[in-house]
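Backbone geometry:
***
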Amino acid sequence: MPIVTKVIGNLDISNDPSTAVTSGYIDLSQEVSKLYSRNIRQGQTFKLKGVQAALIPSAGATDDWDSGMSVNVKHEYIHTTGHTRMVWNKVFNAWKQQQRSGLSHTPVKYNDFEIGWSMDSNCHEGRNSFIHSSGIGDTTEEKVVMLGHSTHQSDFTLEDYSNSMFDRPEPSVDPFGSAAIKEPKFNNVALWPETSRFYADATSSNILTALDGPNAYTGSVTTQTMYEFPLPLSVMCGIMKYEVYIPLDDTIVQYADTVDLILMYYISSMKPLVYRPKARKKKAFTTRRRSTRGRKSSRRKR
């Protein structure tokens, strides 16, 4: 399976280590499509086996390379569950019916059902699918995204659809009465799962002990650990959000070093979210032997 690479260029040390220096979104289906030069559908669970980060000095940097840099990258994603898959299929089927009925537009090549991360994100500008949430007669298109609260005539989110259209399970009750015995363990949370997280870090640092003279020397250290998960992560639709943090303060006496961050994602497999019709079991074909009881054999006796 492929290794997807994301390059984030020209990162500088900020004045506030607690604030992300940059953030963005990754659509693994789009990156794999570029790699294979063919259409890879977003409606899949992408099994992520591992992640790796690396730092290199930015090409063409005009300033010298002083102390180096280290980064910590936070990733967020939605874990595929039976419930999230069911919600995706319901919205996908509604979108597909509207495409066939011509409410939106005539179906065209590569017009897959593609959703964004949230209503205030541009996960893949120009590729986001739209839906008519009020059905027949609704002329306003709403952008389909994964997270957040739906905004009428603007955005339609899977999270809001999940938590507003599906009831939480009832507690178990006494069979000889109506008294509740136990609440479900998951009844205190929303049906749509919270975002899951994983982290990756990298370091490229210098050691400068003397600026000039015959005893001047420097050293350096780089780390780009490969993080392999115990079990592959189930990333729904292959959509992830990342935030890059640099745990250093900028100084007055040094030029701010500039680096390029390279993120590598190791995909082990992809599995479609759409429900497939169950295969019908075929009855075993048997031949019925005709009984010969009571019949005389035509074979000559020896």
Observations:
- The helical segments are 28-36, 82-101, 158-165.
- The chain has two domains: 3-80+193-272, 82-182.
